[in-house]
Amino acid sequence: MSEENSALDDFFSKRPPAAEMQTESHPLGIVVGGSLSKGLDVKLDRSAVVEGMAVGRYVVVRGQTGRRFFSIITDVALDSTNPGIEKAPPDTSDPFLAQVHQGTSTFGRLEVSPMLVLDRDSDEPKPVKTVPAHFAPVYEATEEDVNHVFGAEDERHFYVGAPLDMENVRVHLDLGRFVERSSGVFGKSGTGKTFLTRTLLAGIIRQSSAVNLIFDMHNEYGWESQAEGKHKVKGLRQLFPGKVSVMTLDAESSRRRSSKVDFEVRIGYDQIEPEDVDMLSNMLGLSDVQIGALYYLRRRLGKSWIEKLLAEGEAGEEGPTELDILLDEGKLHGGTLGAIQRKLGMFRRFGFLQPRATEDVVGKIMEYLDREINVILEFGRYGSTLEAYILVANYLTRRIHQRYVHRKEEALGREMEEPTPLVITIEEAHKFLDPSIARQTIFGTIARELRKYNVTLLIVDQRPSGIDEEVMSQIGTRVTALLDNEADIRAVFTGVSGASELRQVLARLDTRQQALILGHAVPMPVVVQTRTYGPELYAEVGHVEGDALQEKHRKNVHMMQGDEDFEGFD
Amino acid sequence: MELQVGRIIRSSTTRFAVGCQVLRPQVPAFGSLVKVPAVGCDQIYGLIHDVRMEDDPFVQQVAALDSPPAEVIEDQRRRQVPIEVGVLVVGYQHQGEIYHRLPPQPPLSLDVLHTCTSEELVAFTGQFDYFRLVLDNRDLPADEMLAANLRAAAEARGGGGEGFRLSAGRELARLLALDLYRLDAILRRIRP
User: Which of A50, A92, A284, A494 would be A472's cystine partner, CB 3.0–4.6 Å?
Assistant: First the structure.
């Protein structure tokens, strides 16, 4: 084999080793100071154009010992050898004076944050634990370097986008790790959160890293939806027929959008527990006393407590009802009851709630999930009613989580097969994970317990500052589009070391198709130009349409029937 | 072309003085590079920082006249007291190598001082280490002298020597980073 190689080398002439090839490129500058905690200061070389630098880009610092420090630009600054030059600038209308001063008395400075180190003879990037010495040369990272760090696409790795100004380099997300812990997609509205989420979900579904349950508030994931540029984009069900099932709370809306729905979700009043209503306490304005009363009412009135409460609101009852008796007994204050009835009156407007359950929705969803079919729950018109969204999401998640806990424990006890990892996608997550309720709600529990029971969250939110800090610190991977509120930016970096330098990067993202990914699923923080959710992605996940579909059809026919002029063997 | 400037009348490690009888066009010129043979090395290089004519009692008397006779003025051109040329030592050559340092020994008196050729000027100004030796002399018009020398060196390179001016300017900007007014003054004197 080696002989063969050398023969080829003779023929093609030997390729220079990679390291040698790279040193030929001109350094951007040299390291002049800094620290591991605060990042390195790099004085830009005269030949480097300050305007050509951008936060979020990668550079490689070559250390003395052959180590290469893979770093990210976190700030670009102007500096001078003498502060006096700012007060009395030279006459730069003279090109000679301008040329002399440029890069000598005045120069550009970069702040770069070292992230990973590549040892001379090791292929695996390691977290950085030291800094390169003074005057170490800094180079722009080559495509080869970046590819090296972000690995190749394989079963676990999914292509999510390209680093800034490197169209040919692919950044891959380790989906196995992505679903291992709860993750978040953040960004203010209009920055493409939904597209990002849809791309990520498409990756998870294609690579079967986990099975998804998506609470689709705005009906954007299942079937076709309109992008802002007026063109239509395909939903996950269209891309993965047979692997994605759409359920709806509002069959009428789904029909209008000609979304194909497998199942209409109906929840019975008798299935709702006080815990489900508790979650809405903030929104409904239920006081602690009223919440206490809910639990009491459930105990006294039994399964049909809500039905009885709501019926009471309507006139025309005969004789003393159970509620009247409770009031007479003095167990319940009339004002409290009135308030509860008034507040729960909202349930009447929710068409998906009915007095008695006819089907076991949770069982149905579990059935799909067990068959590794992803479930998207469309909210139709109820998506605009936050109470409905939270009620249903909480209702279903609590019960599904319970079953997962049960199964996982069983699996541990009897060495049975573990349940397939489940990722639950929720939008407007700060409403579920508000610091005042995150500790009690099921979503807070799931986020905190990591993957103990094979259930994790994919949080989609535009206001991360509204999310409980403890929950935020447990988010493994954060995919963040532009955020400009200071509090939100701070929140995204909760529990991330070296976050202060990355803030600049985040605040400077484009409003569209750019995202900062950091955390568990990437070896180092990365700013990507996110891949377009469109035909290329459709094709990659195995979706064929149009000419390609015809071609596939033709090939299949050909396989079955042979060439047209084939007349047989004899 | 090498021209004789004069003979050394006084010398030390850092500076020396040369006496010459008459001024010719371009010789001696302020800021030009000159050389003199020396004992411990091939030759010593210097920059002309001063050209001085001392008076004598006779000149003072003639100067007081309203219109001195032409033959007296003509007679004064062949002076008894020589014109004195001050030279600042900026380096030396030893075994063919040019060093921008002070020589081990000063030149001897009555040694002959010559101007340098364009080639020698180009070779000597190939590096800028001698800037410090010039700029440190605050009692001399050091900035003017260096600027004159750099202009000559740029011309000697042909085509205006823009690249040379630029790299010299950058070296000056590095050395004089803390004195921007001085830097600005020199840069303006050497710009193309």
Answer: A494
CB contact residues (below 8 A), chain B span 114-133, against chain A? none
- Whether residue A227 contacts residue A243, with contact meaning beta carbons closer than 8 Å, is answered with no
CA angle A401, A405, A406 (to 5 degrees): 115
The DSSP 8-state label assigned to residue A545 in this structure reads -
With 60 as the cut, is the pLDDT of residue A317 above it?
no
CA distances from B53 to A252, A375, B56, B62, B112 (A): 110, 104, 10, 15, 19
> What totals of helices (H) and strands (E) does chain B contain, helices first?
7, 7
Neighbours of B45 (CB within 10 A): 25
For A526-564, what is each residue's pLDDT tens digit? 888 888 877 777 777 776 666 666 676 677 777 776 666
Helices B180-190, B162-175: crossing angle, 10 deg rounding: 170
Of A509, A556, A412, A546, nearest in space to A193 by CA: A509
Chain A residues whose beta carbon lies within 8 Å of the beta carbon of residue B169: 96, 99-100
Edge-to-edge strands of the sheet including A526-530? A171-174, A157-163, A526-530, A514-519, A477-480, A183-186, A455-461, A422-427, A211-216, A374-378, A244-248, A263-264
B192 contacts in chain A (CB < 8 Å): 96
- Which chain A residues are closer than 8 Å to B184 by Cβ? 90-91, 97
Q: How confident is the model at residue A570 (pLDDT cuts 50, 70, 90)?
A: low
Backbone CA torsion sign across B74, B76, B82, B84: negative
- How does DSSP classify residue A377? E
Please provide the size of chain B in residues.
Answer: 192
Distance CA A308, CA A524 (A): 56
* Residue listed under structure tokens 């527990």: A273
Q: Please tell me the predicted confidence (pLDDT) of residue A274.
A: 82
- Rounded CA-CA distance A355/A152 in Å is 54
Q: How many CB contacts within 8 angstroms connect chain A with chain B?
A: 41
Neighbouring C-beta atoms of residue A210, cutoff 10 Å: 25
Is A494:A435 a contact under the CB 8 Å cutoff? no
The ipTM is 0.84
CB contact under 8 A, B180 and A90: yes
| Record: contact B166-A88, CB cut-off 8 A | no
Q: If 0-12 CB within 10 Å is exposed, 13-18 middle and 19+ buried, where does residue A266 land?
A: middle
Q: What is the 3-state secondary structure (H, E, C) of B60-108?
A: HHHHHCCCCCHHHHHHHHCCCCCEEEEEEEEEEEECCEEECCCCCCCCC
Residues A141 and A58: beta-carbon distance below 8 Å: yes
Q: What is the pLDDT along chain B (192 residues), one digit of tens a residue?
A: 778 888 999 999 999 999 887 777 777 889 999 999 988 888 999 999 998 888 777 888 888 888 888 888 887 777 667 788 999 999 999 998 999 999 999 999 899 999 999 999 999 999 999 999 999 998 999 999 999 999 999 999 988 888 999 999 999 999 998 888 999 999 999 988
Q: How far apart are CA A419 and CA A334, in angstroms?
A: 47
Helix (H) or strand (E) holding B122: helix B118-124
- Whether A173 shows a pLDDT value over 60: the answer reads yes
Kindly report the backbone phi and psi dihedral angles of residue A353, in degrees, each rounded to the nearest multiple of 5, phi listed first: -95, 135
